[in-house]
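ok trying again, last paste got cut off:
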Amino acid sequence: MTRFFKALLRWLLILGFSGLLMVAAAIGVAYWLVSPRIPSVDVLKDYHMQVPLRVVTADGKLIATFGETRRIPVSIEQVPDMLKHAVLSAEDADFYTHPGVDWRGVMRAGFHVVASGGNKTQGGSTITQQVARNFFLSPEKLYSRKLIEMFIALRMESALTKDQILELYLNKMFLGHRSYGVAAAAEYYYGKRLDQLTIAQCAAIASTFQLPSAVNPLTNIPRLVTRRNWVLGQMLEHRYINQAQYDEAIHAPDDAAPHEQPIQVDAPYVAEMARLQALDRLGNDALTEGYVIKTTLVSTRQQAAVAAVRDGLAVYDHRHGWRGPEAHEELPPNASDSDYSNLLSSYMDVAGLTPGLVIASSSTEASVFLPDKQVIKLDLKAMDWARPYINENRVGATPTRVDTVLKPGDIIRVIHDDKGAWQLTQIPKAQAALVSLDPENGAIQSLVGGFNFQRSKFNRAVMAARQPGSSFKPFIYSAAFERGYTPASIINDSPIALPDPSQPNGLWTPNNDDDKFAGPMRLREALIESKNLVSVRLLDAIGVRYTRDYVTRFGFPLDALPNNLSMALGTASVSPLSMARGFAVFANGGYLTTPYFIDEIDDRDGKPVYVANPARACADCSERLLQNSPPAPPPANMLTNGVSASSSNAPAPATSVAMAGQTALPADVHNNGAAPPALAPHVIDIRNDYLVTSLMKDVIQSPMGTGYAAKALNRKDLAGKTGSTNDHRDAWFVGFNGDLSTAVWVGFDDFSSLGKGEFGAKAALPIWIDYMGDVLKGLPEKSLPMPPGITTMLINRESGLPTTQGDPDAMQEIFKVEDIDRLHNLATQQQQQNQDQQQTNDIF
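nice, full thing came through this time. structure:
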């Protein structure tokens, strides 16, 4: 018997050893067969996760992120131990002890497949295998794929440390709602950094790895809580937490809620410009390689611009009356809060205007249900502006009953006033744009392309082709001063009729805005009061051809400028950005800079891949002093308006980098270290600049000036010009000081009239005042000092010619020094003519 058992044991050992040899041989053969399909794991040592593109302001505040995934890569050292322990307890408790494959788990899964007749639902993959699958393989359940996965895992364990593998896992895995990796999941579900997570939240995130789309902190919450509690039990069993921590965590509610990455600055139009520039420069990797675009925007200035545009449009909109509710919904009988919420669900907040559903109204008040389920009351005072809109020129009577304005079922908009009280409002139909740039180098400090980006992505600040009206006159005056005219030159403000075959009577008869005529007047007065007929006569005198060529010095392309006298009235096709650029020439001493909005692009490691070196005015730089070249037209490639004279007001294709308008990426110097300053072309004489700026300062300082309202800012360094077009289709104010050149436009996209009396001073200037008052607050005044070659002289305010101190109509005026002798000679000739005329009168 004993001999029998010995023989049996010997055969069992032989069979066992043979079986092991066969298994080893099978594994060897399998490895030989699949080894050509096993990828190298060396790529994991320097693997780059897909990380969205981030766009930030110059002071580092987030404007936007672009990309299909949410991911915030973190190192293993940044992951708290509690979260590591939760993940290990949920997914692979023996991670730090097995060789990459858990053979017991494999056998357990194999027995399950056999027992279930081929059902492959049982798991068995270690964290290492999951990393292998997610980086190199498809998720399909095939035996061959599983075998390759195991071989890759074994290779990974020999090439990488356990911490490196776990770091890849914690950053790579999908955890629901476009969130990849634990840091993105923590931010999205809980609005926290990893080191701020509670034990229960760590367990909840760990519970999401298994079925992230079906079970996560926001989806299938009961099942998530069940899985979370099991993970907590595993953490207790492995002594990662104690009983007290377990008891507290297991009773914690699931407090997850969507937390989009907080946008800190409202600048979606610039964000879209940056996205297009990034794609153009970096290709398809732009949205996945973790680049950070640092724009030139200053967050406080951008926020001021947004507020000024929205407030200004609201004031204009209220001035033209109540157009009625946004929509009307039928209220079901005995409606509940859930019914109200369903009716409101398709109406989103727009630019801070909250949607509301009127659920009751009477003569004295209306009850309005809001998306947060609170019910507010609106009385007559909350809608005293809501006179019925009749047309752009007329509104009805002030409402005397609430129920004549609001009825149950009306969808309306409400907003808090300055005192925190709810007010009735509406989404403006008119649009506006504001762009403000640094005259020194063209860096865009703030840009608003419309009332709300989600409702209209068309960027009016850079793409709109609108007529600038009288805001274009300073360029005409600059051309005239270059031809010998002075601020004291006399031009007749009187009716004029010029041949024009396109008119029914064959004549073009331009008018002043007020249809009045002042007779002979000095050019300073004419610009202050924005006299159209003086500009037409002035342009006629200096010549259209010469003026068109001269005005290109301010960056306008020749084909945007009409080849006729209507150019004097601002019939060119321009964008707000091109106007801010043109006025920046006056602000910086006569240099044409190119607007830009990207200052630097960094890679995911914070290393610059692009650093801008924009051309600067740099009037006092040694390089500029050595250059010492006279003013001249700029290179042809600097003449761009972002739109051509014939372009429509339609948006450019969304994929077109033309959405950046006339902006350009300056030269890249990220590889060159400290680069010498690039110099912007010198395009106008600083004395010419000083004369025109002096006139535009009086547009604000003089009580007769169209921009006189801006004097309320109590600054003497401000200069600017209003602009309005026929039928009040466009309203402008463009102005500057030494720090900023800012253009504001208001109008309708369909070129409808803004309404009678809606001049630039009424519709656009208040926006400019609000913005400039905010961003210049506390800053010292800055404007050009009087340059050499400019002098002052007493003139007679009626004749514009030199006079003496005793003249009761004497006043000071500024001139180029070379004009003084010529003007004295003219005065002498005028005096002699007057004496001769007097003698003639005496004879008769």
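cool. The longest strand covers residues 354-361. Confidence is low (pLDDT under 50) at residues 29-34, 642-661.
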